[in-house]
Amino acid sequence: MGNNSFFSSPLFCFLYYFLLVPNHKVYSTNTFSNNLINQTCKECADEYTVGYAYCSSSLGAVPVSHMTNLQGLALISMELALENATYTSSSIKNLLADGSFDSFSLDCLQDCLELYSDAVLTLIDGVAAFLKGRYDFAEVMVGAVMDASTKCEEGFMVKGGEVSPLTRENYDLFALCDIALCIINILGLSVPHYSYALF
Length: 199
Description:
Butyryl-CoA Dehydrogenase, subunit A, domain 3, 66% helix, signal, disulfide bond, Pla_a_1-like, Invertase/methylesterase_inhib
């Protein structure tokens, strides 16, 4: 999960808007400090599946996250999820062309490719909705992507003893979306929190 492409993303430009618009409803002080990441990740770790260390390291790895507010952190987490989904789609294509998988695994990989391809489009729609202030719709979109990562992983479990080659990628996508959902809910403008189970 690399962050180099983050700065070439169109989403990076939108973050400058959020850098100038602090959220006064939550964390009215220290909005642009490192404390925001720590406070946010602690709350997410308490209420959601994602762990504090994963949350803080993922958000903290993006330099602009240390200068932004909650809206910016939500966008960063969605962008990281989008990068994960895009990269994983390419990885799955390479695995399908590898020639070392049996027919069952190939079918599972093909299903995962469809799930991840849809996830990319869904996340793009989710980001667009968030930027328009449609946080409720953005949360639904992010939740759908979480479900996609779980379905991909579970597909390999149908056959006993089968090991998924995408467990790490599925976990990363699930966890990054979990962070995004948490932040959207902290903003207090989304639909009520839904509970998602990892695998």
